[in-house]
Specification:
The chain is 37% helix and 30% strand. The protein has two helices and four strands; from the N terminus they run αββαββ. The chain has helices at residues 2-12, 42-59, and strands at residues 16-21, 33-38, 63-68, 71-76. A two-stranded antiparallel ribbon has the order 1-2. A two-stranded antiparallel sheet has the order 3-4. Strand 3 and strand 4 (71-76) form a beta hairpin. The longest helix has 18 residues, at 42-59. The radius of gyration is 15 Å and the shape is elongated.
Amino acid sequence: IAELRAAALERFGLIDLALVHRFGDLEPGDDIVLVAAAAEHRAAAFAACAWCIDELKRTVPIWKQEHGPDGAVWVEAAS
């Protein structure tokens, strides 16, 4: 995620970027990802946020454990 942040800062000429993916015990509907971009122009900030979310899903290996009536199962995040 740090590498993704660095790439976005350079690619979009941002002032700063926060990129957070929560972990631990979460409930359905909980907020999981935060992307906040600071830029001189909002178009660059919006583009950076969209790019970060797409790249996060495509490149960062994230797994989750789901609990259901049949027990717990590990699920790899969909690309």
